[in-house]
C-alpha cells in the first residue's frame, strides 16, 4: 500500500488558534447533516484544548463577527441557500478579515454549481460524464434521447444526493424531473457511468487514499450515506498505478475549480473501459460517523482529532502542508 508521510503539525499550542467558531447547521437542505458533522468537529477541537464554540447558521455568525467574538472559523456548513458551500458565507468572512477553513468565494461558488464545474473541467481537458443543462419545462425525453439512457437527473446546486434520480427507462423520466425541480437552480441531466463509485479526499496539497463505495442497494443515495450501516467502504479503493492516477486526477480537478484547504472529489470509474470520470467537488465534506474524509485520513495515519487540527491549521497562512 502507498505510504503517506506528513510533517508534524507546525502548531502545537492550541491557544495559537484563539477563539474558534465551528459554523454548522444553517437552513440548507443539508442542515441536519451539518449539525451532526459540527458536533463531531466541536468535540474533537475541544478535546485538543482548542477554545471552540458552535455557531448555528449565517445570521448568528454575522452577529458574532460584528462583535469580534472569534478569531477564525471552522466552516462545516453544507449546501447552499443558508449553507456554507456556495461562496456567500465566505464573502462575509472575507469582508470581516476572519480566517476560515475550506475554499474561498470563487472555489466554493463554482464547485457548488455542477454544470459550471464541468465546463471548467472540460475546458482543461479533464474527464467528466457528458451532460445537458435542463431548463424548467424542458423536454426531458428529448434530452435522454440525445445522451442515451441510462442517465442521472439532478439539481445542479445540491449535495448529499438530494433530488437525484438514476433513470434506466424512459417511463421514469418525468418523475425524475419533477423531483429535481423541487430544488432551486438549474437542472442537470448526466450520462450514467456504470462502474465503481470512488472518492478522494484532499488535505492541503495531498490526495489521501481513495475510497471505493459499495452500497448494499443499487447506488449510494442519501440513506446509504447517512443512515445505513451496511455500506462498504474499501480504502484504498484502488492499487498501484490506478491509485496514483486517481489521486493526480482528483488534485487537478480540485485545483482547476479554484479550491483550497481541504475537500473531497467524487469520481466514477467505467467498468467497461477503466476510464475515470469526475463528478463533483465537495468543499465542506461531511464529518459524521458515516463520512468519507475521516475514513481516508485514518488510512493515511491521521485520526479524527488530528484531522480537525490539520484542517484548522490551514487557516494560518504561514502553515503549509505537502
From TrEMBL:
This is D-alanine--D-alanine ligase. GO terms for molecular function: ATP binding; D-alanine-D-alanine ligase activity; metal ion binding. The keyword Manganese applies. Binds 2 magnesium or manganese ions per subunit. Gene3D superfamilies: 3.40.50.20, ATP-grasp fold, A domain (3.30.1490.20), ATP-grasp fold, B domain (3.30.470.20). Its main location: cytoplasm. The gene is ddl. GO terms for biological process: cell wall organization; peptidoglycan biosynthetic process; regulation of cell shape. NCBIfam families: D_ala_D_alaTIGR, PRK01372.1. Mg(2+) 2 binds at residues 280, 282. GO terms for cellular component: cytosol. Belongs to the D-alanine--D-alanine ligase family. It holds the Pfam family Dala_Dala_lig_C. Pathway: Cell wall biogenesis; peptidoglycan biosynthesis. Residues 118-313 form the ATP-grasp domain. Its cofactor is Mn(2+); Mg(2+). It catalyses: 2 D-alanine + ATP = D-alanyl-D-alanine + ADP + phosphate + H(+). Keywords: ATP-binding, Cell shape, Cell wall biogenesis/degradation, Cytoplasm, Ligase, Magnesium, Manganese, Metal-binding, Nucleotide-binding, Peptidoglycan synthesis. The active site is at 30, 160, 291. It comes from the Bacteria. Cell wall formation. Mg(2+) 1 binds at residues 266, 280. HAMAP family: Dala_Dala_lig (MF_00047). It is found in: Cytoplasm. It is an enzyme of class 6 (ligase). Its EC number is 6.3.2.4.
